[in-house]
Amino acid sequence: xxxxxxxxxxxxxxxxxxxxxxxxxxxxxxxxxxxxxxxxxxxxxxxxxxxxxxxxxxxxxxxxxxxxxxxxxxxxxxxxxxxxxxxxxxxxxxxxxxxxxxxxxxxxxxxxxxxxxxxxxxxxxxxxxxxxxxxxxxxxxxxxxxxxxxxxxxxxxxxxxxxxxxxxxxxxxxxxxxxxxxxxxxxxxxxxxxxxxxxxxxxxxxxxxxxxxxxxxxxxxxxxxxxxxxxxxxxxxxxxxxxxxxxxxxxxxxxxxxxxxxxxxxxxxxxxxxxxxxxxxxxxxxxxxxxxxxxxxxxxxxxxxxxxxxxxxxxxxxxxxxxxxxxxxxxxxxxxxxxxxxxxxxxxxxxxxxxxxxxxxxxxxxxxxxxxxxxxxxxxxxxxxxxxxxxxxxxxxxxxxxxxxxxxxxxxxxxxxxxxxxxxxxxxxxxxxxxxxxxxxxxxxxxxxxxxxxxxxxxxxxxxxxxxxxxxxxxxxxxxxxxxxxxxxxxxxxxxxxxxxxxxxxxxxxxxxxxxxxxxxxxxxxxxxxxxxxxxxxxxxxxxxxxxxxxxxxxxxxxxxxxxxxxx
Length: 568
Fold this sequence. Notes:
Layout: H1 16-30, H2 34-58, H3 65-71, E1 75-76, E2 90-91, H4 114-118, H5 132-148, H6 153-164, E3 176-179, H7 185-202, E4 205-208, H8 214-217, H9 250-255, E5 267-271, H10 286-292, E6 297-301, H11 307-310, H12 314-323, H13 330-338, H14 343-357, E7 362-367, H15 378-391, E8 413-419, H16 424-435, E9 443-447, H17 460-474, E10 478-482, H18 486-495, E11 500-502, E12 515-517, E13 531-532, E14 537-538, E15 549-551, E16 559-561
Parallel strand pairs: 3-4, 3-6, 5-6, 7-8, 7-10, 8-9, 10-11
Antiparallel strand pairs: 1-2, 11-12, 13-14, 15-16
Pfam families: XG_FTase (PF03254)
Family: Belongs to the glycosyltransferase 37 family.
Main location: Golgi
């Protein structure tokens, strides 16, 4: 496997030897004339006075600032807590660990995807350390993807199997998992991550549905060869018609005993959505994985984060333990590896961050998603949000009795980033902190980037804003999310945050307590299979199979990964 060499060299600065030579030449030029030497000293003192004056007013400048100023083409606000010296635009400097501890590959053209290596300037970086085995596995996958990716000789040979309708046991062909786009953006990000992990576990190449806005939202994650399925793929026009009743569905074939035939298909459709049948659930059984192993093309459609169920497959257990010693880090690592905002989306993110979040002492995110709620429920939802944020000391209480509160010293600034399809919650909370001082003297600013009123799946600008808002939420210090929301799952998992989750809103009352703290970074698998592969019957005892899978806090039937202390 070829390793990619770093393309970023340290800046070369003048050495002490070079400075000595320059001084020696200056001495010989001026000669021993005392008057000339005195004039030189006066001039030198004047220059130093100017330099120190500038340094005093601009604050402490880094030792390499002159090189950075000379070479920087883009100036941005330095994304850190506000100080006097940071009240002015600072030049963009290279992050110390732009490869995220080896998680990301080198060798990309940086300008084509600024977010890939600039993101550590805005985020807190990875909250956990990726295992060396995961890093090795990603480099190995990248080499395989380069060998088998679109339009390579091996890809063309494997595509021919679909065209001919014949199965081949030729070991020189590659195996693929094709992700079919389905559902909202949050669901798509979670299912794409699930498909990639399955590809890692089974030595398959992940190719993604090119018919949606994927290339406008995310940069290419793999070096040199695209992850987009070519638009001339033979059966791409059938993707929309695939469902659990399709003749090419694995569940359909099991129900009709087609899998008993000696002739294996060149491709299969896997229906892993919330409405899958018992036969579709066999995908999560070891014996069925043995059958699927030899099928060159697996086409997957899902609207669920099915990663926890992969941990229930015995043949995957050891590999998953090696990849993820900390079980709650699966999406945190794979999400940061796969999903880099394109330059157009990165512009939305960085402009908003610099304008409204960069200078705050603390950044609080609040994500609101309502499911089948009417206009009459607005006040209950608002009260639940306020009850959560004040009881958990996320936001300060307001003083309704005094027009102004005197505070000694520098007042703490808090920026609240809210995301919702409706502007009403933002307007109420913004006005509350504008019209009333806080009891403890903080200055609270409230912002909401967009209010689209309704979800507009697969509309480009809507998806760009949604992706930008998920990413902005991941950059906050503390986060409140809504139960069952995949939008919120993506935000907190990318940021490595354990959010406070608002209980699912119910008509006519505020839940008590209003919210709870998540025990894991991981998203919830809403519709797990609950199937006993040995007894060949449906079962609800999946959580007893392995120690690091439990029911979700916000969905009692769902499953999620978490870490038990002392058991890793």
